[in-house]
């Protein structure tokens, strides 16, 4: 199996390291990767971090499975963009990535569904923040 790991951080390094040791994985490609990841995978430069760039890369490199690290790409629709290609990808759709991409959305979701979480306030201005701070003293 040929696997594409998208990202360049520590999370992606750990993923590439583990995937390279899997008996079912024949080749690991990281985009864009970093010098540490290059010890575990073939690093490929990308012209930009768009859905189209990564979809094209997966098709051109005959990738069997794509693993996404950065949440911004998930929130930006990467998994949804892979949908029409029939290429396998690990990660949530835009709708579900909102839980990770927006802390306010997640907190409101937890409250709505009675999922235990710490108390919170969401503010949109310095004046609202000051009012919340005054109330909490």
How many helices? The count is 7
SS class: alpha/beta
First and last CA, distance: 57 Å
User: Strands of the biggest beta sheet: in what spatial order?
Assistant: 3-2-1-4-5
Walk me through the structure.
- The chain has seven helices and five strands, in the order βαββαβααβααα.
- It is α/β, with parallel strands linked by helices.
Can you tag this structure with a few keywords?
5-stranded parallel beta sheet; alpha/beta; 137 residues; 7 helices
Summarize the structure.
Strands 3-2-1-4-5 form a 5-stranded parallel sheet.
Strand-helix topology:
Layout: E1 2-7, H1 10-20, E2 27-32, E3 42-43, H2 51-60, E4 65-68, H3 71-75, H4 78-82, E5 88-90, H5 94-101, H6 103-112, H7 126-136
Parallel strand pairs: 1-2, 1-4, 2-3, 4-5
């Amino acid at each position: 199996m040929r696997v594409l790991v998208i990202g360049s951080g520590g999370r992606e390094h750990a993923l590439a390291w583990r995937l390279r040791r899997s008996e079912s994985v024949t080749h690991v490609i990281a985009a864009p990767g970093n010098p540490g990841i290059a010890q575990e995978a073939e690093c490929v430069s990308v012209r930009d971090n768009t859905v189209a760039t990564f979809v094209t890369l997966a098709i051109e490199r005959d990738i069997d499975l794509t693993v996404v690290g950065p949440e911004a790409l998930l929130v930006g629709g990467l998994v949804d963009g892979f949908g029409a290609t029939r290429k396998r990808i690990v990660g949530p759709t835009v709708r579900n990535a909102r839980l990770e991409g927006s802390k306010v959305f997640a907190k409101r979701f937890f409250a709505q569904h009675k999922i235990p979480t710490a108390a919170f306030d969401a503010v949109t201005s310095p004046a609202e923040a000051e009012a919340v701070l005054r109330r909490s003293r």
